[in-house]
Amino acid sequence: MIKVKYLPFVFFVVLLFSCKSVPEDLIMFNDLNRGRNLTGTAINMENSTTTILPGNTLRIIVSSGSVMDTKTYDMFNLLPVTPIDPATTRVSNDMEFQSYTVDENGEIDFPKLGKIKVQGLTHFELEALLQKKLKSYMSDPVVRVSIERNFIKIFGEVQTPGLFSIENRHNYTILEALAQAGGITSFGDKKQVKLIREENGRLESVVLDLTSSDIFTSPYYHLKQNDIIVVDPNAMRRKDAQYGASDNYKLAVISTIIGTLSSTLTIVFLLLDRTK
Fold this sequence. Notes:
Blueprint: H1 2-5, H2 7-17, H3 30-33, E1 57-64, H4 70-74, E2 99-101, E3 107-110, E4 114-117, H5 123-134, E5 141-148, E6 151-156, E7 162-165, H6 174-180, E8 188-199, E9 202-208, E10 228-233, H7 235-243, H8 245-275
Parallel strand pairs: 6-10
Antiparallel strand pairs: 1-2, 1-5, 3-4, 6-7, 8-9, 8-10
């Protein structure tokens, strides 16, 4: 008789401890809520610089700090560029055709200078290299390089999945990428964020846990061009896909009713037990 009397109480306790108020896969850097302190933690700077790869498109504009070089630097641009203001040697913003495609050997064919190896260089390093080579032709060469066709791809449970250009950006992190995509949705599993990367013609993959602040010291914290990010759906989203959102709502209502009845019966039985 005693065992039967306390069954509702036992059922309520089991139900209570089997439910979580906020799933951990919804909270970023959850370990900070548990007392971890990041003060003094060094961020992993691996892959923090954006370098030129085969297939990239480079916009390269050559000008000069000297007005005497106006005619000379024209020959180093793919199309003649008309200065807007010769006194300051500002060039036209129309650079649509001022571009070079990096070939499979990591090279570009530059006017007068011929084949130049650019793979692995940053845009700053290429600017310095070209300025050094062009000093044989003009007194004060100025070179501006922009890396194009430099993308990362984000799929899954983010607000705006798609293709995102990083161009010349250095220190581009996975958090910045996800922010550009509008952030992870409430149905995204922050413990299961997949990153796929190509290295020297070979693919590698890793699953990142964004509920942990260990991401800041991960070699995958900074992204490389062509990285692919996939945010998996969390348990709630998978249940929606399996049963449908309306069915899950019904189950939640039923669970709430059962929990309420269980707690009410428990209180009633305890009061009856005291009156005996």
